[in-house]
Amino acid sequence: MNEHWDKKAQIIGLLDHTEFISGELIAQQVGLSRTAVNNHIAQLETYGVDIFSVKGKGYKLAKQLPIFDKSKLVNNIENRCFYFHEIESTNAFMLQHADELKNGDICIAEYQSAGRGRRGRQWVSPYGQHVYASLFWRLNQGMNAAMGLSLVVACSIVTSLKAFGVDGLGVKWPNDIYRDNKKLAGILIELSGHSIDECHLVIGFGINMSMSEQHAEQIDQPWSDLTSLNSMPDKTQLLTAIHKQLKVDLMQFEAEGMEPFIPQWQEYDLFYDKQINLLMAPNNVTGTCKGIDKQGAVLLEHNGVITSYIGGEISLRGSE
Question: What positions belong to coiled-coil segments (predicted)?
Fold first, then answer.
């Protein structure tokens, strides 16, 4: 950790969301001048940390900030764990180092300056508020063997969230997790390699933990987070549990394919047996969703005929 984040992390550790702390006390605790403290706090605000500043009182977090415990992450995750306060993209980091990685290695960040979603969309990544992580996996059967993998990852995350008491969960083909019918988490899988030879997978996922008002305004769809739970999961424990579950499920997927995961997907499928539209430029297809097949394709029934659809440009919307 460089000096830039060393001091910022110390300051964040002193801030609370219930009581103010004076700038003078912060300066004494971290060994900085008052001006330097003010500058660090101003910079933290540019990273998305909501901090109240009141003359004569000092500073206070607008809401609780769920930060990873780095030492617990490194000690409790069996594989290599790359932890960053700040990074452009956890997926990009893993892709850059793919040749050096082993199955289960994971990159975790508190802030992404260039977080990505599907189809090049931005993934809003304010500091400390959510989960941003990417796991590496190598498939010896090639890219073709990765079909349906995003659905398996979604099932893994749902399993882990449910174990932490998260309710109202649902899945949306091909890679979104919802809570109370609003988006809670997303998955971005990027591949490098060949269709028949060894293939490198980077499995990126983001989970909304505690959305701030200023960043909620940047999101163009209904969203959900975990702040309404009676007790928010510890972010470090949640990430560690997801990592373990992913490894178990990925090994099963390699050995048995999609079939063992179809019942779980159907249990949480928000669109199962409902009228839907598949948006496939330049055409739309309408019918009744009948779940997924063994390749992870979505099944659509129209005029009594069930057809499978799969591809990176397919999106799913509830039919009007």
Answer: none
What distances in angstroms separate CA 311 from CA 110, 180, 280, 296, one per listed residue? 31, 27, 9, 10
Annotated catalytic sites, by residue?
118, 183, 317
Show Cβ contacts of residue 271 under 8 Å, excluding neighbours closer than 6 positions. Answer: 172, 173, 289, 316, 318
pTM of the model: 0.89
Indicate the residue among 61, 86, 108 that finishes a domain.
Answer: 61
pLDDT in tens, 36-70: 999 999 999 989 899 999 988 999 998 888 899 99
* pLDDT mean over 75-92: 94
**Has 235 been labeled as part of a binding site?**
no
Q: What is the CATH number of the domain that holds 76?
A: 3.30.930.10
Q: Say yes or no to pLDDT of 143 above 80.
A: no
**89 known member of a binding site:** yes
Residue-level pLDDT at 141: 75
Taking Cα atoms as reference points, which of 313, 48, 303, 270 lies closest to residue 180? 270
Q: Tell me the CB-side half-sphere exposure of residue 167, using CA atoms within 13 A.
A: 4
Tokens 């988490």 correspond to what residue? 185
Q: How far apart are CA 317 and CA 309, in angstroms?
A: 14
Does 118 carry a binding-site annotation?
A: yes
Domain assignment of residue 22, given as a range: 3-61
Q: Is the peptide bond preceding residue 282 cis, with omega within 30 degrees of 0?
A: yes
Find out whether 34 is annotated in a ligand binding site.
no
